[in-house]
Amino acid sequence: RKISILKDYNVFATVILLGTIANFYIITRGRVLSFQRCVLLYLTLLLNVPVILLSGSRKNFLIICVVMFFYLIVFFGKSIYQTQKKLCVKDGTKKRFLLLLVGVLSILSVVGMTSWLSNYSDSRYEEYLSGNYMWVRYTDKVDGRYERESSVRESDLSGRYETLISGKAANGRIVIWKTSMEWIKDMSPLEKIIGGGNSYNSEVFDDIDHPINRECKNVYGSNITNEAKNWLYPHNIVLGDMLDGGIIKVFLLCGVVLTMIYKVLTSILYRSEMGIAVLWVGGTILVMLMTSGHLGLFGNKFFWAPLALTLGLEQRQTCKAKTLGKDTR
Questions:
Q1: What average pLDDT does the segment 61-84 reach?
Q2: Which of the given ranges, 30-39, 130-139, 172-181, 289-298, has the highest pLDDT on average?
Q3: What is the greatest pairwise CA distance in the chain?
Q4: What's the pLDDT at 324?
Q5: Apex CA 90: angle with CA 89 and CA 94, to 5°?
Q6: Is 35 within 8 Å of 248 (Cβ atoms)?
Q7: What is the DSSP code (8-state) at residue 261?
Q8: Which of 226, 213, 253, 240 is nearest to 295 (CA)?
Q9: Residues 6+ apart with CB under 8 A from 30
């Protein structure tokens, strides 16, 4: 029932979310009220938001709500200010009507699209359970033949989002984090400094009968055998890097992240709208790394996006400073 073209629906939702943030930045920078920007805003909300909501990614659901609230306030705030300045202009009424129309159509369209896609997904899911679905999942070969797999049952998406209200959404992650902390405590003094080596963060979970892994086995390992390898990882980039590279790797991680945050905040002080967009992009990826990070900071492909954008901000500030210097002379 989770709409995703990737096995990891959280990653899929994050990719769509990053594109949404980029579009919001384009729409809201500088002067905002124009027909083209209103169309882009409407299409962004219509096409992107329902997909993020129906992906089932709870953290991206929370992020997109906050991002939408922020950028819609910016968009409509700037637009209202512009129309107020042009009260005497004959097309001022038309622009205010366009603004109202975009707001109403966007809300109705997002609700309608989300409902339509959800109902379509539910009907296909019922077909799958009844055996009338157009494709069938198969397991590995047995005696040279593929064996049909039993139906995979999924919970309703509304049930997943209800866990946000009840506070149960993070229960599974808390179990993994507690187990990872126990493994860190179990490391020798030398391992705490240099780590246990590459992929150690997932190897510690392979022994499902180990007392430290008892809770993880109860929550995630009901179908896991002793032969399974790398079936679980800390789902937190700090804990993962601590297990792999110890304090040295964690210090390197913190140094890089804090430097990037400093550069972005400095850019925002220069009144850079792009700095705010980079902060949203970097913050979104940081949330993902803190709740799902696997391959370390530099091994995660999403990390390179905010890094490149931060370097771009640095270059932009330098060019701006040089330009201001020439103007003063």
A1: 89
A2: 172-181
A3: 83
A4: 57
A5: 105
A6: no
A7: H
A8: 240
A9: 273
Pick 69 or 7 by higher pLDDT.
69
For 211-262, the pLDDT digits (tens) are 998 888 888 766 777 777 888 889 999 999 999 999 999 999 999 999 999 9
DSSP per-residue string spanning 134-173: S---EEEEETTEEEEPPPPP---HHHHHHHHHHT-TTHHH
- Locate the DSSP E strands across the chain: 138-142, 145-148
Give the model's pLDDT for residue 166.
77
pTM for the structure as a whole: 0.81
| Residue 254 Cα to chain centre, angstroms | 20
SS3 252: helix
Let me know: does 1 contact 156? Beta carbons within 8 Å.
Answer: yes
Tell which residue, 46, 48, 45, has the closest CA to residue 17: 48
Provide the 10 A C-beta neighbour count for residue 116.
Answer: 11
Instruction: Return the residue matching tokens 């993880």.
Output: 216
* Contacts of 154 by beta carbon, 8 Å cutoff, 6+ apart: 1, 2, 125
Structure tokens at 201: 């963060």
Residue with tokens 């040089």: 322
Residue corresponding to tokens 């799958």? 128
Amino acid at 61: F
**Percent of the chain as helix, strand, coil, to the nearest 5:** 70, 5, 25
Q: What dihedral do alpha carbons 100, 103, 105, 107 form, nearest 10°?
A: -150
Label the pairing between strands 138-142 and 145-148.
Answer: antiparallel
Lowest mean pLDDT, pick from 139-148, 255-264, 272-281: 139-148
Note whether 64 and 22 are within 8 A (CB): no
